[in-house]
Amino acid sequence: MTVSRVINNTGRISEATRQRILAIMKEMNYVPNAMARSLVKQESRLLSLLIPDLTNPFYTSLARGAEDAARDLGYRLLLGNGDEDLAKEKEYIETVLSARVDGVLLTPTGDQSLAHLKKLAKQRIPFVLLDREVPGMGSDQILGDSREGTRMLTDHLVTLGHRRIAFLGGSRLVSTARLRLASFEETMAAHGLALPEGYLIEADYRMKEIDRQITALLAMPEPPTALLAANNFLALRAIRALRSLGKRVPDDLSVVCFDELEAGFVVDPFMTVAAQPSYDFGVMGIRMLVDRIQQKAPESWRKVVLPPVLHVRKSSGPPASL
Amino acid sequence: MTVSRVINNTGRISEATRQRILAIMKEMNYVPNAMARSLVKQESRLLSLLIPDLTNPFYTSLARGAEDAARDLGYRLLLGNGDEDLAKEKEYIETVLSARVDGVLLTPTGDQSLAHLKKLAKQRIPFVLLDREVPGMGSDQILGDSREGTRMLTDHLVTLGHRRIAFLGGSRLVSTARLRLASFEETMAAHGLALPEGYLIEADYRMKEIDRQITALLAMPEPPTALLAANNFLALRAIRALRSLGKRVPDDLSVVCFDELEAGFVVDPFMTVAAQPSYDFGVMGIRMLVDRIQQKAPESWRKVVLPPVLHVRKSSGPPASL
DNA sequence: GTGAAAGCGCTAACAG
DNA sequence: CTGTTAGCGCTTTCAC
User: Fold this and answer.
1) Nearest nucleotide, C1' to the C-alpha of A98?
2) Domains of chain B, with CATH numbers?
3) Could you read off the pLDDT of B63-104 as tens digits, one per residue?
4) Which residues, in sequence order, are CB contacts of A23 under 8 Å at separation 6+?
5) Is the entire prediction scored with pTM above 0.90?
6) In Å, what is the separation between the CA of B18 and the C1' of C16?
7) In a 3-state reduction of DSSP, which class is residue B7?
């Protein structure tokens, strides 16, 4: 049909027929069928963003960045929520695969996401990894600086006078959790500070054990005066546990963490954090992805590292003994 | 192809060929093309959820409910963020129209969304309205109880001893904002309490004016001792404004609001609220939508009203004069 | 400038 | 039980 030509503004059409077609389209409420078009063009102009937790402000802010960037570049964005659940992630990957999206932006659940990513790679769907790396999988990525952020937080506590600092980490199956733990150990060593047995906690998947772990920590002969949590929700759970044990933050124990918490929708932000530029994660991720799709990217994988910023707030103070 | 039959598990196939096909599929990493299938089946098994603010916990919680319900019913869910922006909403509606989703779940930006909804109706795409009504548009809907919630909050303040209560409302182009204002006026009247000129504030679209409006409120000869905000972010902005004016909450002024705030990711929830069952909004919305799609619903529109729950916390207390 | 023919990957309906 | 034909709504490609 000539109709197609007017819709796509392509080829030569006389203004007369052009107007006539436009009029008829309006009259019959014509809406082009994107699926039929994608089928023949072999491109959908559809991108997919998979985040691991829709309720975590870090990821919603990231999603807004991705959305804005996608719109700017003329792509639509499908949002998906993996829920930190490998099975849901798998399901979602299968969905986007059969939906024939042009590219995928995702924060993988963890190292075990490797299998899912391989599927994407095998179907030649371009993807960009956000925030977390997956060993064994080359790809474009946007990462935070876990080493630097952890160092900032640790230094902050040391500067306040803390010497006994414990670490509450996430699963070792997640790259950021590993890096933050390693950096914490390094930084403590650089300050000549000891890391007693029991100061290094690895939270289990659903954080079920945290209350017990915190209780054990405080029952030590030399309990810590500060706690560094590897992410925002971990810190939150820790503080709840501390409160239920009658401990006050920061009076009895300082708590600091990675990732912003509360700043957007709270009267009075409480937590001292190493904040990451979450919105930019989304924007840059989409740009990198679209570059790759449109083959404007170099052959080799690209990697961008976004630095964190320390926000000192009320959850950290000098140790009680000072 | 016989292939189609094994994929869809339909018709009679010998186990031998069945296995052979499965093997070949695996070998060549076959992934069915959902678009091609939708094209012929005239259904996509795709639902779309449009929320007005991705960063508002009310809507993210709602989205999780919708997601879970959609998965249960065998549908995929595309998330969209309208950003309280009529233009983005329009864009999104066009997108889902051309993507040929089977149904749409949405919280309209406001009364002006009517035009967008009419487009959906004209294309015979079933949709369910969440949280906000749109005058002139019949449809299935899941609503909160704005009257009851406002009454609860007002009664709470009156019981604490407040007599001078101001109201910070949202745009009158949004049904919930209108209802909450009306219910506030009614309830105050029922208590025999006066509503001086200036006690009723309508926040503008982007809340730019709030600081000035709050300043004016406090400069009145008889300033209020309590403030009822029509939603969570409005309350937040108000409290920020109050703080910058050196006022303390609840010591100098009590503040309460509609919608949950902070409870999920904060150490110590502060705000007294009339919380709505946001997750259930999503679940019930999807169920209602799927019923409609599968024509299990009655011809007439259905409407479900979900009651709010009062959570008394720290942002409200007796008036200073007591 | 405009129309006709072919085909994207799939499934419905019918043959064999 | 399995293969064939046709067509979903669109965009090529190539005639006119």
Assistant:
1) C9
2) 1-32 (no CATH), 44-144+278-306 (3.40.50.2300), 146-276 (3.40.50.2300)
3) 999 999 999 999 999 899 999 999 999 999 999 999 999 999
4) none
5) yes
6) 20
7) helix
